């Protein structure tokens, strides 16, 4: 059975009645480390929760259905998912990566993967000629789109065609738009990763991460890595994310509606120099976004005149909270310079326009007038 998106958020592609013999409407939390075998050589399908647990499996099925993948694997955080993903590669392998990434991903590539002799080129995949960077040892292209925090948009189908031509993996971090607005596998990506902590969970209460793949071979390799390194998502956390996803569709709609109103309000404010939101028609990624995504999301970055104003806003907001993370029902404001991007090398930060004049907003589901009033008094 295949259902439409909002239905899949609740059931995946399973029949509603198939989830549990007791008739439980909410999928049970199987809080067990291990499973009894019916006999020698027999298994219920579950052996030990590091390998698989029914609650995690249900969550994986739902996420897999949302991304139209072949398989989805749930990890204890987005970074745990990325760390496991990088185990696909061997010393000497070269990866072409976007340059305006989540700070933690850059820290992983530059400090852990680099130490294990993976080599990276960081480029602007929204603009630069990717083929120029391909060498015989290139094994993957890794992009976030829209990027964090500058909201640059990469043409997913275009990059997918290059990856196919050279027979290399194409990986998309789809955290910012969530599967509600964008499905990279449908556009030719091989692997999608998510920080499930963000929109999928949606309530700023649980960490989680996902890898979704488009074929059996990748699924088998990554399942082997997951059971070996042991960073799978725990049963209770799996349940929290399952519960969060049930409202993904309506949260995304409301968050986007609020974000568009706030982007327009900021743009009209004389103290704001620039607004980076792909849903504004003068944003360079507007047309590509309209082609490849079903929406523009609820992340936006804005630039003020100087760092004093930025710091003043951070200390003056009352309803909007000054905190890292994004995608939840609560509107959060971050200062990428000292928070999410503190470990990004200074020259890279400056090249990408991440200065001490920029602030990033993750818009929640509050009443938009209350949010605008708060920004208004802070500005
Ligand atoms: C937060 C985030 C991550 C890391 O996920 P965690 O769940 O915090 O470990 C990776 N990529 C993007 C785009 C993120 O926003």
TrEMBL record:
Instruction: Note the superkingdom of the native organism.
Output: Bacteria
Gene Ontology MF terms: carbon-sulfur lyase activity; pyridoxal phosphate binding; transferase activity
Matching SUPFAM superfamilies:
PLP-dependent transferases (SSF53383)
Q: Which residues carry this modification: N6-(pyridoxal phosphate)lysine?
A: 198
Q: Which cofactor does it need?
A: pyridoxal 5'-phosphate
What keywords would UniProt list here?
Pyridoxal phosphate, Transferase
Q: Which InterPro entries match?
A: Cys/Met-Metab_PyrdxlP-dep_enz (IPR000277), Cys_met_metab_PP (IPR054542), PyrdxlP-dep_Trfase (IPR015424), PyrdxlP-dep_Trfase_major (IPR015421), PyrdxlP-dep_Trfase_small (IPR015422)
Q: Which GO terms describe its cellular component?
A: cytoplasm
Keyword Transferase, does the record have it?
yes
User: What's a single GO BP term from this record?
Assistant: transsulfuration
Gene3D superfamilies in UniProt: Aspartate Aminotransferase, domain 1, Type I PLP-dependent aspartate aminotransferase-like (Major domain)
Provide the family line: Belongs to the trans-sulfuration enzymes family.
- The protein here is known as PLP-dependent transferase
